[in-house]
Amino acid sequence: MRSTPDRRDNQVYGTIDGPAREALETVFGDRLTFNTTVRTQHGTDMSYLEPQAPDAVAFAASEAEIAEAVKICAAHRIPIVPHGAGSSLEGHILAVHGGLSLDVTLMDKVLAVSAEDFRATVQAGVTREALNHELRDHGLFFPVDPGANATLGGMSATRASGTAAVRYGTMRENVMRMRAVLASGEAIEVGSRAAKSSAGYDLARLLVGSEGTLGVITEITLKLAPIPEKISSAIVAFDSLSDAVDAAIAILQAGVPIARIELLDEVQIRASNAYSKLDLAEKPTLFLEFHGSENGVAEQAELAAALCEEFRSGPFSWASKTEDRNRLWKARHDAAHAAVAYRPGCRPMVTDVCVPLSSLADNLLHARGLIDASMFPAVIAGHVGDGNFHAAFLIDPDRPAEIERAHAINAEIVDYALACGGTCTGEHGIGAGKQKSLRKEAGDAVDVMATIKRALDPDGILNPGKIF
């Protein structure tokens, strides 16, 4: 048995050897691997957290295989860590207590598309981009865009959102139904394909955002949206963060049906200019996208431009041709890579607070002030249409003082956001990195969450060390 106890319930976990290994090999054959490189890959995500490899990796090809694997692991108290594309930013896929990494990327089939109902049913390993490729001929698309080409199972598990949430919502609003394997090995179906339902507890919403701690998601039915007749994009710079945020709020208050409205601060613009070979003014800049008819998007852009002028904006540049739109949005699309390149050798620690729009400018200025007084550079990018922003601290992983200071600044940013009625995470989840912040935010409600966890997973084998 593994000697490292779980922090929550003092559990002791088993290891994959003897009868457990033989049983798993019977299920997976050569799709069960103990290869060091594969294990390391599956214990490493995109966060600043140190990699933690599982004892083995199994590549599941069906829900039945997942159910059998869970039953075997339950019998031997072996931890199970669901794994998709590995694009987590909060350590969701780290094997904190070893165990089995259950990779679902072979489950990559789009099972059904109902264009009349604006629905698609997919296996958990289907990626966002693969689904949208499949949907093109139907005139539909899946609008939740977290930036990374994540699996839809992983996006459901972390309640992901992204740049288009201001118009289309998050995974919470776009998951209608799902299938999942519980800690007992039982497969259940929750939610409905109907547009609405009042039938009992909303277990689909419970699993969306559960981060693999309540079940292994195997299948999802998603809402789709029609591909817009016309898309146009725009960028506009401001002299201050406050002016940029106030302009964004004015656009929303005017009822402009904006599809995306993003903010990059002046440091991120400087990094993007260097990385993407651009010559943008190094000022806080809004990136906008409009969806609708040809006349509709033109009217939306004109109204947005007029509103921005009221807040001392620079030139309002907009375009409708795909290549021109991509050029305007290049800084935003390349922002993450540009940030890392801004300080070579760094690892980004990314904050994820979301606050009411009325306090967004104050929170951004507060965060920028803390960063400017720190010992390392940082950039800020925000989904300003819904009050969510990210400060990415570019820290040297070999300098413990920087890591300690980044944690302290992150805590101050979270505390300020909570005092304004916000949340410690708008879209990345709690994972292994934000557990203290969750307790600050939710208080005794965390104990209720833990009670639900114990009821569904009494031995704590499903992604232990996450959320709690």
What does this structure look like?
By secondary structure, the protein is α+β, with helices and mostly antiparallel strands. Among the domains are: 110-226, 2-Layer Sandwich (Uridine Diphospho-n-acetylenolpyruvylglucosamine Reductase, domain 3), CATH 3.30.465.10; 230-335, Alpha-Beta Plaits, CATH 3.30.70.2190; 343-428, Alpha-Beta Plaits (2-Layer Sandwich), CATH 3.30.70. 37% of the residues lie in helices and 20% in strands. The chain contains 18 helices and 18 strands. The protein has helices spanning 18-28, 36-42, 63-76, 128-135, 152-158, 165-168, 171-174, 203-207, 241-253, 266-276, 294-309, 322-328, 330-333, 335-342, 360-372, 400-419, 435-442, 445-456, and strands at residues 32-33, 56-59, 80-83, 100-103, 110-114, 119-123, 140-141, 175-181, 187-191, 216-223, 225-226, 230-237, 258-264, 285-292, 317-319, 347-350, 378-383, 388-395. The strands form 4 sheets. Strands 15-12-14-13-17-18-16 form a 7-stranded antiparallel β-sheet, sandwiched between helices. Strands 5-6-10-8-9 form a 5-stranded antiparallel β-sheet. Strand 8 (175-181) and strand 9 (187-191) form a beta hairpin. Helix 10 (266-276) packs across helix 14. The radius of gyration is 22 Å and the shape is globular. It starts with 17 loop residues before the first helix and ends in a 12-residue tail after the last helix. Residues 1-9 have low confidence and may be disordered.
Annotation keywords:
468 residues; Uridine Diphospho-n-acetylenolpyruvylglucosamine Reductase, domain 3; Alpha-Beta Plaits; 5-stranded antiparallel sheet; disordered N terminus
